[in-house]
Write a structure and sequence with these properties.
- With 515 residues, the protein is mostly beta strands.
- The protein is built from 2 helices and 28 strands.
- Strand 5 and strand 6 form a beta hairpin.
- The radius of gyration is 30 Å and the shape is elongated.
Length: 515
């Protein structure tokens, strides 16, 4: 018996020495994958940077509703842990929030073990003896003390210094990312706290994460703001969005639109102008984060990309330009708040799209141009510690003419585009304008079509193209990276291809060009 009592301390000392040296104790599994949103074991010294999975979630059981990073409770390379806390209400203007915790089930407690104070910064599960703290959860030693309505729950739920990331919640439909600066007290709903804005590096630390998540088209809220707008969406292969649906093709959102355009006063009825067609979108959000080796953020990116297809027609003799700018006609607003699960952290992306028609025409040229358009686009920004933030703007579109005719000297340009806004937790980080267009120019008195019919003399040409513009906003510092400029332009990207044209007699339309 004495020999065993001597061996136990020796074994404990040996195990502790192995842990300090970076070795695993017997029975541990260093390869255990904890990127499922739960707790991760601490990374051993000299080990690889922890990699977190990135996946989509429908906001249900497929992902965490919240994650919390507590001061003094971080693991090397990872700060946040999945939490059962919920944001019952949140006022973005004042930073006032109410945090609730699940009901605590009665369980036997060991005598003499103190409970954690909500004013303490210790992590959950690491109680600190603070019986004199105002919000201490220890029972009162004075039996005559009257119960107070502001008495805390049996277990502290939130403390000063905690950083909370929450999925969309009451009062915060765009999600919450905030640091607790003061515990005000208890209410009927939960613990009322004051908060200040926080950044993602406080939750992700030295981890790395990268993934692309498609946006479920059925989850997008669509508000038609013009007549003759039809909204529909189709799933691909009959697949349904759910806990595993983010890795599946989710289909496309389709918007059909028809609009009458202004024409020159006194013009014939035959010159009435219109734009009709449809656009299909399959948007995706790309998220990337890389913790710095010496602390801070080494890299980050946030982009919006997607497949685009449309078929639309510009017809008639439009007079829709002003000296200041072309005429823009918004016809639908789209909004979604997809949640990207980054390890244990629910990252809420705020996506807004405003689809519009824009026409710039002098009221002289009469056209009938119809185009099939397919391709993809990517807009956003990327950060590298040595270079700072840089814009990303890409577009690959392929236009094929369906019909193209033009008559009378003049010019016209019409766009069927979308204004995009992408942000995190209610802070706009990227704005972009993706604008595919049709353009026609007619010189002299030409009258011709792409079937080869022509009359009079002159020249004409019809073009398809795309314009991409936008900017990175200062709110991208939500990653924990500096933004020195308040606005970093994406730079104007323009691609154009010829659909049809000729001089005198027009030959048949080419098959389109790839750009």
């Amino acid at each position: 018996m004495r020999r065993s009592s001597r061996i136990a301390p020796l074994l404990a000392l040996t195990t502790a020495s192995l842990l300090v040296a970076g070795c695993s104790s017997p029975g541990s599994d260093p390869s255990a994958d904890a990127s499922d949103g739960g707790k991760e074991p601490a990374a051993a010294a000299g080990s690889a940077t922890p990699k977190l999975t990135v996946k989509g979630t429908d906001g249900g059981d497929g992902g965490a509703q919240s994650a919390v990073a507590r001061p003094g409770g971080s693991h090397p390379g990872r700060l946040a842990e999945k939490s059962a806390l919920k944001v019952a209400s949140f006022d973005r203007n004042s930073g006032r929030a109410v945090i609730t915790a699940p009901a605590v089930r009665p369980s036997p407690s060991k005598p003499g073990v103190p409970t954690k104070s909500p004013e303490s910064g210790s992590p959950s599960g690491s109680p600190t003896a603070t019986p004199s703290a105002p919000n201490s959860t220890a029972p009162s030693a004075d039996p005559s003390a009257s119960p107070s309505k502001s008495a805390p729950a049996p277990k502290a739920d939130v403390a000063v210094g905690d950083v909370i990331a929450s999925a969309p919640a009451p009062g915060a439909p765009q999600g919450v990312l905030a640091k607790v600066t003061k515990v005000v007290g208890k209410t009927d709903q939960g613990t009322e706290v004051n908060t200040a804005p926080a950044t993602l590096d406080a939750l992700l630390g030295g981890s790395t994460a990268h993934g692309t998540v498609p946006v479920d088209p059925s989850a997008m809220k669509v508000e038609p703001i013009a007549p003759k707008v039809k909204v529909s969406w189709a799933k691909t292969g009959g697949l349904h969005f759910g806990p595993k649906g983010a890795s599946l093709p989710l289909g496309r959102l389709r918007l059909d639109v028809g609009a009458s355009l202004p024409t020159p006063s006194g013009g014939p009825v035959s010159a009435e102008a219109s734009a009709t067609g449809y656009v299909q979108l399959a948007p995706k959000v790309d998220f990337s984060y890389e913790g710095g080796k010496g602390g801070g953020v080494g890299g980050a990116s946030l982009t919006l990309s997607g497949d685009w297809s449309s078929q639309w027609e510009l017809k008639g003799r439009a007079a829709a330009s002003t000296e200041a700018k072309p005429l823009r006609l918004p016809f639908a607003k789209l909004h979604a708040d997809p949640v990207i699960q980054v390890g244990p952290v629910p990252v809420v992306v705020n996506l807004d799209l405003t689809c519009y028609l824009q026409v710039d025409a002098d009221g002289k040229a009469s056209v009938d141009v119809k185009q099939d358009l397919k391709g993809d686009f990517t807009v956003g920004g990327s950060y590298q510690l040595a270079k700072g933030w840089a814009p990303i703007a890409k577009a690959k579109m392929h236009g094929t003419p369906v019909r193209a005719t033009a008559a009378a000297a003049g010019k016209v340009k019409a766009s069927l585009g979308a204004e995009a806004s992408v942000g995190l937790y209610g802070a706009v980080g990227v704005t972009a304008d993706v604008a595919p267009y049709l353009r026609a120019e007619v010189a002299g008195t030409a009258s011709a079509d792409s079937d080869g019919n022509a009359s009079a003399t002159g020249s004409w040409a019809a073009y398809g193209g795309i314009d991409v513009s936008g900017a990175l906003r200062a709110h991208l510092d939500i990653f924990g990276t500096p933004i020195f400029d308040r606005r970093i332009p994406l730079g104007t990207l323009n691609r154009e291809w010829k659909l049809a044209g000729g001089k005198g007699t027009v030959s048949r339309t080419p098959a389109g060009m790839q750009h």
